[in-house]
Hints:
Number of strands: 0
Order of helices and strands: HHHHHHHHHHHHH
CATH topology: Methane Monooxygenase Hydroxylase, Chain G, domain 1
CATH architecture: Up-down Bundle
Distance between the termini: 43 Å
Bound molecules: protoporphyrin IX containing FE
Amino acid sequence: MTSRRNPGKSGSRQNEPSTTALSPKISFETTTPYDAYVRASTLAELQQTKTEVPGEYMFLVCSQIMELYFNLINFEWRHAQHALREDDLGEALVTLRRSVDHFTALNASWMSFRWMTPADFNAFRDDLGEASGFQSFLYRHLEFLLGFKDEALMRPHKNVAGDHYAQLQEAFIAPCLYDDVLAYLARHGYEVPDVVLQRDTSRTYDTNEHVEDMWVALYADTTHGDQLRDLAEVLTDIAEAFSDWRYRHVMAVRRAMGAKGGSGGSAGLAWLERSLARNAFPELWSARTRI
Length: 291
Ligand code: HEM
């Protein structure tokens, strides 16, 4: 993948005057430059439904759209982690805000599922076999970046061809986004306990009362300007947007299959509701009671 950072390249087209031709170019050999770049024809080949049931097409397309957004958000968060490690708070903030906008678009995709009754879902559900979003490695990667680490959830990918398992293992042991935020704050004068800074990052981030104190102090402190508070707020937006995704998913499940067992083998709704109860960046929420 080429670099996303290319600000103000000299001689770029932004400085060129518009041509006199009114219409776009309409003649190309073999492929259009658009398709060569966007790969729309490749994308259009990826909707291989199992049935002729029209609703299944929506189900497949929207699942694919969500996977693409998972990947995009993953890219943004890793970029933000990199910026934080370089003490580039401005770049981290812009990137994290962009990811919140992506979540807004991602979560809007759930609107396409509202029409689906249990009868509509039953019309193709059996044809999906044991396929379940539970097996989404891109979603699992996002959870790891948010600090939710559960080794058992990597197992579905263990024997799968390709490097998904290796990528997940790497993300599993690596610091999560919150670890990088707390390390940044510690480097910039905030009191983050060593036990947190040196924690075993392959474990789910566990709440710490001194980190809560630190957020309380940060929200009270105006000497650093508003940027650190912006950082706290954009993380809060991210945690909320992720919970929104989970909530919309739970509602789609309730509408389409009630409390039936999941195709991935879980108790379905009851299992999903348990995950919904967990918030990312826990002290950003608990600190609010004291601010
Ligand atoms: C009406 C549509 C849907 C239904 C009824 C449904 C149902 C379920 C159920 C029952 C589970 C629990 C695991 C299992 O036993 O299968 C699950 C998990 C999951 N589904 Fe869906 N799902 C739907 C749409 C989607 C879509 C569009 C996505 C997007 C990729 C998705 C992603 C996931 C993910 C990531 C999990 C794992 C959640 C976690 O581990 O906390 N689901 N789904």
